[in-house]
Amino acid sequence: MVIVMTPEATRQDVDAIVDLVATAGGDAFVSRGVNRTIIGLVGDITQFGTLNLGSMQGVADVMRISTPYKLVSRENHPERSTVRVAGVPIGPDTVTLIAGPCAVETPQQTLEAARMARAAGASLLRGGAYKPRTSPYAFQGLGEAGLRILADVREETGLPIVTEVVNAHDVDLVASYADMLQVGTRNAQNFALLQAVGAAGKPVMLKRGMNATIEEWLMSAEYIAQRGNLDIVLCERGIRTFETATRNTLDVSAVPVVQRLSHLPVIIDPSHSGGRRDLVLPLTRSAIAVGADGVIIDVHPHPEQALCDGPQALVDGDLEELARVMRDFPPLMGRLPAAALTPVA
Amino acid sequence: MVIVMTPEATRQDVDAIVDLVATAGGDAFVSRGVNRTIIGLVGDITQFGTLNLGSMQGVADVMRISTPYKLVSRENHPERSTVRVAGVPIGPDTVTLIAGPCAVETPQQTLEAARMARAAGASLLRGGAYKPRTSPYAFQGLGEAGLRILADVREETGLPIVTEVVNAHDVDLVASYADMLQVGTRNAQNFALLQAVGAAGKPVMLKRGMNATIEEWLMSAEYIAQRGNLDIVLCERGIRTFETATRNTLDVSAVPVVQRLSHLPVIIDPSHSGGRRDLVLPLTRSAIAVGADGVIIDVHPHPEQALCDGPQALVDGDLEELARVMRDFPPLMGRLPAAALTPVA
Amino acid sequence: MVIVMTPEATRQDVDAIVDLVATAGGDAFVSRGVNRTIIGLVGDITQFGTLNLGSMQGVADVMRISTPYKLVSRENHPERSTVRVAGVPIGPDTVTLIAGPCAVETPQQTLEAARMARAAGASLLRGGAYKPRTSPYAFQGLGEAGLRILADVREETGLPIVTEVVNAHDVDLVASYADMLQVGTRNAQNFALLQAVGAAGKPVMLKRGMNATIEEWLMSAEYIAQRGNLDIVLCERGIRTFETATRNTLDVSAVPVVQRLSHLPVIIDPSHSGGRRDLVLPLTRSAIAVGADGVIIDVHPHPEQALCDGPQALVDGDLEELARVMRDFPPLMGRLPAAALTPVA
Amino acid sequence: MVIVMTPEATRQDVDAIVDLVATAGGDAFVSRGVNRTIIGLVGDITQFGTLNLGSMQGVADVMRISTPYKLVSRENHPERSTVRVAGVPIGPDTVTLIAGPCAVETPQQTLEAARMARAAGASLLRGGAYKPRTSPYAFQGLGEAGLRILADVREETGLPIVTEVVNAHDVDLVASYADMLQVGTRNAQNFALLQAVGAAGKPVMLKRGMNATIEEWLMSAEYIAQRGNLDIVLCERGIRTFETATRNTLDVSAVPVVQRLSHLPVIIDPSHSGGRRDLVLPLTRSAIAVGADGVIIDVHPHPEQALCDGPQALVDGDLEELARVMRDFPPLMGRLPAAALTPVA
C-alpha cells in the first residue's frame, strides 16, 4: 500500500501515519520529495484496511498495490486449476461445451435440447428451473418441477446438469439435483447467496456481474472460496456499455486478464452477451481463440415457442457448424474438446 | 407494440403474425410501405410478450411502445404519492432529510451520529446493521446487535429508523425493528429479496442498481408493488460510468425523469454516489434543486475511526451548512423541510 | 511517481531503475517490503514520462501521483479565475446565463431568440453557424452567413456572441465575428483545433468530450493554455453512459471536482445533456445549486420548425420560470446573476 | 419511421401529422388502438428528418426503423467489398496483417520494425508521423520527416504504408506519401477531416470512436463515402467502459454486427484496445476467429525506448507465434492470409 501525502502535509502528519502503521504491526517507508512525501506500507494489507488511512490528516491518496483476494489468486496458487463436474473437466487442457435450453419448459423440449447439445459436442447440460427476470410478469421458471425434468433428462442422456439458483434459501434443494450450481449476473454481489453456494459442496459457475470489474468478480469468487469451496468456474457473459446493437458487450479480454490473476477456469457465454442468434457462432469461435476454457450456449428445438430468450438460441441448422468449431479450434490452442475425453455413454 | 418486417418479408409472413396476434386476443394493424411493412399491435402487452414475435419469419425488429410496469406507473396513478415512515412524509410537498452513520458500530457512535442528524434537520435515522461488502474480509455489520442499538437510539432521540436488509431470510427480523427497510444497490435485482420486502408490511427504500436503467429500476419496484406494498421510495445513488474521479456518477436527471414516469417519491444519496466528503454538500443542494423529495446522508462523529465509508461521512463542522441548505433550498422549490412538519420531541 | 516491482524483481532490476532515474535528473527512494519493493520517484514528471519505465524488467505497475496538467491546475494558481467575455464575467462571484438558438437559421429567428434570452436574464448570446452533425444529411449550419446574422443581432441587442468553430482552418474567420469561441464535445480531442483557438486571442468555451474523463478534459484545456490563452471556460454537457432515457448523463459532480483541481470557471449545458425540454429547468436549478459558474441554454421562438435540436429548446412559456431561477438561486450560493452586474444597454 | 402518439393525443393531432407527412411527399398509415395511436410513415426518411415530428402536438415518441446511412449500407450493396491498398486486398476472402511501430522515431527503428512486420506475415506497414496525444507534453510525432522515413522504408521493404492524419489541413501532404490514410479514434467525429480524406483519392482506415455506437461509426464512414470515396476499411479498437484492467474494452461483437449492416471491410486493432503486450496475441486470435478481415498490430525493436505506447508493442520473441497465428487461423475461416496472395518482393 502506498500513501501519497498532500503538498501541505507536515512532518507531524507523516509521523502520525508511521506510528499508526507500527501499531498495526506494519512497516512504513518514507520517501520525501521536493513537493510531496510518499509512504510505502509493508505488512498485512487486511490489517491496514481497517485503519481508515484515507481520513488521516495530510493524506491525498491511498493506493493499493496488491490484490485484495487471496484464495482465488494465482499469486498463491501459480498452477491453473481444473474443476471437475461429475467427472467432466473444465480447465487449461480442454475446451468444454455446456449447452441446453435457457429455461426448462417441458420434458419433451428439455430432452430434445439435450440431444441437440450432445450432437454438437456438449459434455454438460445447462437449463434453468429458476429464472431471474427483469419483469415480474415474465416466466419465472418451473421451480422444483424443472429440476425433476433435468434429472430425468440426465438419466436419459448421461449429461450432468448445470442449473441456476437465485435464492440462498433454495441452495440445498437445487444442490440435491444439480451437478453444478450457477450464480447469475444479477446475483453476482448477492453475498448471502455466494456464501450459501460456497457451503453446498457442489462446483459453482459464477457469472460476472454485468457491471462488475474484474476485481469485483474475483472478490465475489473469494466469498465462495472462503466457505471452503474452490471448485469455481468463472463465466464472462458481457458487460453493460453504451452500445445498444448487442444486449451486452462481450469482454473477451477478460479471459486472458483473469487467467493471469486467478487460477480458476474461465468460460464464455456467447448467447446471453450478444442476445442474438447470428452472433453466437462467431463469438464462440472468438471465445475459444482468446483462450477460454469452455463455452455455455443456449439451444432450443423450437425457439419461436421459447418462454425465455428464444431469439438467441441456436437451432438444429446451427449444430453442424458448432460441432465443427468444437472439433477444429481447440487443437489450434493446444487443447482437446472435453467431449473427446469424457465420452457420454 | 410495433413489429417492423424485413424488406424480404412475404405476405404470408405478415399474415402469420396477424393470425397469431388475433389468437392472443389482440388486434394487428398493417402499414405497407414501398420497402417495409410495419404492424402495430393493440391489446394486452403482457400477453404479447409470451408470443416470442421476434423469432417469427420475416421480423426485423419488435419495438415496445408502452411501459412494462403498471402498479408504479404514473399512467394509471397520475397523482404523485407521499409515503409515510412512522408518520414522517416523503413526497411532493416536502424535502426529507435522512441521516446517520453508514454502519452501526457502537451504541455511543450511533447515538452521537443520531444527534448530529437531528441537529442538521433530519427526520429519519439511517444506519446499517447488515452491510453488503465487496470484500469478504471487510466489516460485515453487527447484525441483530446493531438493530438493537438502532432501536435504543430511536427510543432516545425519537428518530424512526431506516436500515438495510440483504437477505430474504432476514426480512422478518429486520422488519421487527425497522420503520423502513432499505434494499441496496447490489440487491436491486435480487428478486427474492424484493418479493420478501414487498410482503413485510413496512415502507421500503429501493436504491437504484448502479448499472440499472431507469426502466429496470421501476421494474424492480414493480416486484415489491406486486406483493401489495406501494409504500416505496426510490433512491438514486449514482451509476457506474467510465469516470473515476468520483466513486459513481450521480444521475440527477433521473429525478425528473422518474417523477414523470412513476408516482413514487424519489430521493438522492449524495454520500455514496460521490464517495467523497467534499462533494456531499454540493450534491445535496443539487439534489434538492433538481426536485428530489429527500436526501439520505452519512454522518459520523469520528470518521477516521469508521469501519465503513469513513471518507464520505459529514462531520460536526459540516452540520451548520447542511442545516442551512435544508432550511433555505426547499422553499425555493415550493416545499417544506419534512422536519418542519414532524418536529421530533 | 511510484513504481511497484513484481514479487520476482531482483536487486539488479531495482538498481537499473534507480540509475535510469538518476540519469534523468531525478531521485528514487526504495522501500523494500517482504513481498514487494516500491520505488518513489521525485523530480520532473514530464522527464520521467519519456523513460518508459513500465517496460523495464521487474516492473509491475507505474502510478502517477501528481496531475499531468500545469497551467490550468489550481496547484499553481490557487485563486479561482474569472474570464471576461466582452466585459461579461464568468467566474466564482457570479452565475452567468448564456442563451440563444442551437443553430442560426434566419435573421428573424435569431433576433427573436436573442430577445427571449435577454428576457430570461442572459448576458451572452449563443448560436451556431457551423454545426457538427452525426449525419452528413443533417443541416450543417449557415457558415459565414450565420456569423453575419449573429453580428447583426449583437448590434441590435447588445449581447456578445458565443459561437462554435469546428475546423482549425476557420478559426480566424470565426474569431473575427465572435466574442467567445466554442469547441464542441466531438472536437474535445481535436488537438489541431485546440491549438488554433489557443492562438486566436479570444476567450474559449471548451465542452467536455462526452467520453472524456475529467483529467482528459483538463489536458485538452492545457493544449489551449499552452498557446498563451488562459481565458478558458469549461462546460460540462453530459457524458455517455448506458442510460437511454436521457441523451447523455449530466455529471453535476464534475463541477466541484473540477473547481478543486483547476482555477478555470466551469459552467453547465442542461439543454444538450438531457436532450429534452422538460429537463432543462430542473437541470438548470441543479447546476446553479451544485456551484456552476453559469449555464448555457437553447431557446427557440418556434421549436417545431427548428433545423437542429428543436425538442430541447425552451419556449416563450418557459422564460418566466427561467428568469425566476436566475434571480432566486444565485443569492443562495453567495453569488450575483451576471446580468445584474453588466446590464445590457 | 413510426410515430407513437400520447394517450391524450386528439384526432386533430393525428390529422396534423398525416397532412404534414403528405406535404413532404410521404404516406402515413394510422393504427388506432384502445390506448394509443401509432402512425407508420413510408417514404424518404431524409425528408422526414427535417420535419421535427418529435415537437408536434400529441407525439410521445418517434422511432426510426431504417438505417440512416446509405452509401456504406449493405442494404443497397449486398456483396461485401474488398478494398485494395497498393494492390493488397482487405476484404472477405483474406486476413490482412498490418504491422509496424506505433510512432516513427528514427529511420533505423522504423526499418527494424518493418522487417519484424514482414517476418510475422504483414502485407502493409503501419507507422505514425502525426500522433494525437492526450497530453500536450507528450511526443507529437516527427511530422513530414516521419513521412519521408516511411517512404524510404517502403522503398527498402516493399511494404505499402498506412499512416494517420490528424488535421484536414495536412491531408494532401500526408496523401502524397501514404498508401492508406488512417483517421484515429479521437477524430472519429472530426467531420472536416472526414470530408478531407474522402476527397483525397486514397483508401482510408477509419477507427471507431472510443465512445461511438456502431451506427455513429457508420455515419462517420458515410461522410467519407459522400465525397466519392468508398475505399474505406473500418477498424474496431476498443470502446470506453467502466473496466480499468484494460485500456479499453475490445468489442469483438462489432465485427459480425458491422458486416451485416455494411459492405465495408472491418479489421481489429488488438494493440491499442488492450494497451498491454500480453493481450495482443490472444486478441489477435480472437479477432480472426470472430471474422475480422484483418488486424493492425504495434511492433517495436526496442519497446523500452519507445516514445509512444511501448508497453503494448510486440517484440522479437513474439513474432514466431504471430506468424503461426496468421498461418493457422485464417484457413479455419475459409480465408487466406493476405500475405499469401501478395508476396512482398
Automatic annotation (TrEMBL), chains A, B, C, D:
Keywords: Transferase. The keyword Transferase applies. Residues 1-66 form the DAHP synthase ferredoxin-like domain. It comes from the Bacteria. Coiled coil: none annotated. InterPro entries: Aldolase_TIM, Class-I_DAHP_synthase, DAHP1/KDSA, DAHP_snth_FXD, DAHP_syn_2. Residues 87-328 form the DAHP synthetase I/KDSA domain. SUPFAM superfamilies: Aldolase (SSF51569). Pfam families: DAHP_snth_FXD, DAHP_synth_1. NCBIfam families: DAHP_synth_Bsub (TIGR01361), PRK08673.1 (NF006421), PRK12595.1 (NF009239). This is 3-deoxy-7-phosphoheptulonate synthase. It comes from Sphaerisporangium flaviroseum. The gene is aroF.
